[in-house]
Amino acid sequence: MDEVGKAPSHQSHLLAQERKRRSFDLEELTIFLNGGADSYKAKNEMEAIVLKDPILRQDDLHFLSHEEEYRFSLQRSKRAIELLRELKLEWGSAKANKFWQAAESESFPVGLNLHMFTHALASQGTKEQVDFWVPLAKDFRIIGCYAQTELGHGSFLRGLETRAEYDQTTQEFILNTPTLTSMKWWPGSLGKTATHALVIARLYMAGRERGIHMFIMQLRDMETHQPLPGITVGNIGPRVGYNPNDNGFLGLKNVRIPRMHMLMRFAEVTPDGRYASLTRAAKPSYGTMVWIRAGLVTSRAVKLSKAVTIAIRYSAVRQQGHIDDKAGEVAVLDYVSQQHLLFPLLATSLAYLHVGRWLYAEYVRYRPDNAMQAAEMHANSSTLKALSAYVATKGIETCRRACGGHGYSRFSGLPHIYKYATAAETYEGEAMVLHLQTGRFLMKALRLFKSGQTLTGTIKYLSHWLTVVSDTSPIVPAGKSLADLFVLSNVFECAAARLIALAGRKLEHFLEQDGLSKEQAMNRAAPWLVRASEAHGEALFLVRFASIGDAKLSRPAREMLKGCALLYGLWRIEENTMFFMETGTLTPGNIQSAREHISELLALLRPDVVSLVDAFDHPDEVLHSALGAYDGDVYKRMYDYAKREPLNKTEVADGIHEYLKPLMKSKV
Description:
alpha+beta; 2 domains; Butyryl-CoA Dehydrogenase, subunit A, domain 2; three-stranded antiparallel β-sheet; about 675 residues; Butyryl-CoA Dehydrogenase, subunit A, domain 3
């Protein structure tokens, strides 16, 4: 058995030949895609440390059970924190962030302590609360989680049932989950890991409800790790992915916590039982959710870029069939049908990477006390998160199918990427819910425009296009081509404006003509609101990605990225033909022209695509893929992985003599 596959493989030479066709400076583009020279240097430093560590490098994860995954992730968490301390990396610093990315901390049971728990404390607590709790969390002296979602309610905050009642006599809050559906359900790290939780609950004082607030609660004894009295907690069981992340349930029965365990940056409960709202702030979870969603666009880019790297490298070495009967077998990547599947996804991963960084920069600049700016940030992060999660997940599955039968093997690395990517379609906001929230904001912007107010920021484009929105004629000027980023930007913004106006007319009809209440009308108008949100998100992605033409790069690299931006925009037209046809923005002839330009761009990009995915700089140890390794030695790696399958430790598997042999000897 061990002698099989030892003959030299010619696949390892094929990718080297592909790389000789490169037309741009690989190092320059790699540095740019990784956030600049300093960011790239930090990535390489931290990656080298993580990947040489025998615990953190994550070798044979394909064969672990749920329980083994969780235990191993605890071990990896411990080792990561030890290294972080040894390196003396400050929490939240650029190098620390690169370290956690290299260690793939999103699958750590302590991961949410690093992100949501600490961020929510810092953004929602008073100075005294932040000074006390945040150092404990940063030093991992406590392990926190974020307990919002309930068994019966998730993103609809007003429907949450968990109660916190203030007892003035003891200056304590009494927390309860009074029904089965009010149990906290899904919070990561909650099941077996967290010692503390930020519990989102409805505050009641003297029988009067005061809305949704955050409360810090200790869940487990700090020595024994046993649940404290009144607390029922456990793991909710295996999921499609993220199983090391320890999602849990939480039931509360008359659990008392001190008054100062309510986060009080924006609202205060005084010792004598008075309630004071200190500012017109966003919802308690508002800022934290926006922060998470802003980062999710970039993380979807990374997930998709890994899948595209695997699929393109494999397609370049997998030879199958003939295009020219007089020649030998050709690489699958030479088939235009394969290029049409994969090249737009490569462009999409570049778009999401570029726009994700822009969105995060916008988050850093926005002021939550500016109501309109906060609402715009929330709306943009919602639609961009929903769109990127959906398209990236679908794209990763396309990459798997594009790899044929071998793509179905776990050894391809693609199922692992998919199971982690697909979760983002639900967590931090399900797509339809997010699009409806963005739709509500767009209806508000529409009303502001009609009242004569000036629109600014990312909705400024509505001011121009809404003045001609009644004109449903195509907008591509005579003599102009869709293979022009300026023209494409206008097309996307015009289509979005017209769909927003259409949604506004539908909503107005349901309110005025049908006499429905506001919420009833919103429900009836939901399909139009969702499409308006999607069109707004598509326009944001395209317009922001189009700005990549201004990047400070050498001409070959810049032109390559502009070509990818064109391909992305034209492909999104092809994927959303109805948006543009329904609004009259494009004609059938324009759509056909878009398809022809796509075909031209595929041929233009073909010589460079292997080098383009190289520029993402995903090491083999991160991809965990027999199909996507840098050297292209696919078949040897597939066989080496198969030899490590636990069933192959013995020639005769357990159960053969007990079950199969008696069956074979029995008579029918």
